[in-house]
Structure formats: structure tokens, C-alpha cells
Amino acid sequence: MRHFYKLASVIAVLFIWAGAAQGDPDTFSIDRDSEAAIAKDLLPPDILTPGPTINVPLESLGLSWDEDLGTGDDLNALSAGLDSFARPPVFFFSVDRDSVGIDGNPQTPIVSDVFEEAASGQAAGDVFVTIYGHPGVPIWSAPVGQNMLHINQSELGLFPAILQTQDYTGQDIIDDLDALNFTEFDMDGNGSPDVNVYFSLDSLSTSLGTLGATADDILLFAPGAASAVIFADGDNDIGLQEGDDLDALVLLDLGTRGEIDQFGDRAFFSLAPGSPTLVANGYSPADIFYTNFNGTYVREFTAAQLGLLATDDVDALEAEPGAYVPEPQTLFLVGTGALLLIGVIRRKRMK
User: Fold this and answer.
1) Alpha carbon 261 to its chain's center
2) Which of 30, 157, 218, 295 has a CA-to-CA distance to 151 between 20 and 30 Å?
3) Do 7 and 142 fall within a single domain?
4) Does 346 lie in the same domain as 236?
5) Directed axis angle between helix 328-350 and helix 2-17, to 10°?
6) Euclidean distance between CA atoms 28 and 126, whole angstroms
7) Which residue has the higher pLDDT, 24 or 286?
8) Do 110 and 2 share a structural domain?
């Protein structure tokens, strides 16, 4: 009977948590190979909202894309500079198409993780959250080797939702969410950002040369500006190497907005596969780094701490403090799993 009341209490706690705040992706972007999304005129330099719809079009950021050639800019990291750095952080992240995750999450099969989603070609458009807990009872946490599906790609309007489709080369068409933020940039609906947009562009982006920037720089587009400028130089302000590609970003811009204050501004970030800094130091594209823009960085969390392999890639990132609340569908699965366990326990005690 004691087991019954313990499990019933767990269910009650989970549903009480449902009334608390939780992280939801207000804005995101897709990568340059997201064929299904691009076919709907949603482009890699656009800032999107779930649907998906365009929150800030590429033109409002001074970026470009040639739909005939399929070339141009790819906005691959995104922040409003208002992110939380309270400790411990709860990370929300997405991975690329080649990521597979670590097999062995004790939460499964009650809730899904990167490993399960990747096995069916679903992970690249999903958002995951770092967790800890006993089987079937996921709890928010700093990265300790486990993760859980937070937002399924179908809720964002990305493809595939259920069935996979192949393009003319025979490759699966899978939209890849490659930037993530919990802030909406255009609040009044006029298509222009109302708050600062901090972002990076991938190494193939054509606007890098125009801006005098590289793929390891953090760029800033301020409301009313004519074009983006360099907010943080990857080499001088972060300590990165030539050829690095900053791939995911969590940023807090304190003090004077739009200018680096070295004892207040800070960032978490990841680097794209093949970045020289990763290769030279044996780091992973799924490692999370920290900088306060004093010209240095440290590796703060490893891929394994996120429940990922060293060969995986974190290509979108957000952070929030405090108690994590599972999404409604996850709550249902967790509650159902717990109720099933209660039934098993009661049957055993009746024998």
C-alpha cells in the first residue's frame, strides 16, 4: 500500500507542476537543407514561430536567399540577449540529422529521448530538455546524462510529423531546427524586430563577406538599424580559431545593450562539426562552452552530460532555471505509465 501512495503522490506532483511556467520555443530557424520547409517559402535566414509562420523575414535583418539557386544565408544561432544564467541551467536543445543520442535512458519507454527520436528520423526538428529522475518520473536538472523530448517537430509545423518522404536523390526529407529562442522578436506584427536580435550565420552564408564577419562571430541587428553589426568577435572576444562555426547560442547582454560588458555579458554556445577548435582539442559538436567575452572560453558541459554521443551535434540551444514541467502529452504518458505500475504493484500484493 505504501508503494501505491508514493506513486499516486508522484502523479499529483506532476499535474501540480502543469500550472507552472515552462520553456516553449517562441522563435526558431531552419537549416539550408530543410527542403520541406523551404518548399513552403520558409527560408533559412527567416526567424520563424510555431506553425510555422514568419516572425521576422530575412529582409528585415538585411539577409538574403536566392530561391532559384538555393544559396544565401543560414541563420544558425539565435538569442534576444535576455537568456537566463541562473544555476543550475536546464538546457533545451535540438540536434542535427546525423545525431543518434545515447542508448540507455532509464526514462524510456514511457517518454522519448534523442536516441528514440533519431531511430525513426524524427530528432532533427525536435526540442529536447535535460532531465534526471527515476524511470517514468522525469525531473528538470542540469545536464547529468539524460534528456527527454520536450517539443515534437509536428507541434512546430516541421517535417516529418508522421511519415518520411524522400527527395529525388532518395534521401529522406527531414527539416532541421538549427536555432532556438524563447523570445518573440516582432511583437507588433509589422515584420521588424522590436528587440535586439543576436545571431550567427553558418560558414556558407553570403552576407558574411558584406558584414566583414566570420562564422564564429556573434552578430547583432538592433531595432531600426540599417544592417547587422558584429557584437562579439569570435577570435578576439571568445578565443575561437579561424574557421570555427558558432552553431548554437544562449546569450545574456547586461549593462549597455548591444555592447560587450566583460564582467556582465556571458554566453553558452556550441560549435559546428569540423570547427578547428573542436578538432584541435578533441571536443565534440555536442559539447556546451561558456564565455564571458574576455577572450577565453571553457567547456562547461560535455556531450555525455546531455545524453549525447561525442559524434552528435547540438545545433540549437536555450536555457532556463527552475522546475521543468513536462508538455501535456508527456504528462499523459508519464501518468499512464505510473498508473500501470500502480496496477502491477496492487496485483502483486493481492496474490
Assistant:
1) 25
2) 218
3) no
4) no
5) 170
6) 11
7) 286
8) no
Buried b (16+ CB within 10 A) or exposed e, 193-203: bbbbbbbbbbb
Over residues 184-199, the mean pLDDT reads: 94
Count the residues in the chain.
Answer: 351
The C-alpha cell at 188 is: 507588433
Among 164, 99, 93, residue whose Cα is nearest residue 126? 93
Q: Is 5 helix (H, G, I), strand (E, B) or coil?
A: helix
Task: Indicate if 247 and 348 belong to the same structural domain.
Answer: no
Rg over CA atoms, the chain: 21
Cell representation of residue 77: 544561432
Domain match, 189 and 53 both = yes
Are 172 and 348 within 8 A, CB to CB? no
Domain of residue 332 covers: 1-20+327-351
Q: Are residues 96 and 10 in the same domain?
A: no
Number of domains making up the chain: 2
Same domain, 280 and 348: no
Q: Which three cell numbers stand for residue 275?
A: 570547427
pTM: 0.84
288 has pLDDT over 50: yes
* Residue carrying C-alpha cell 504493484: 345
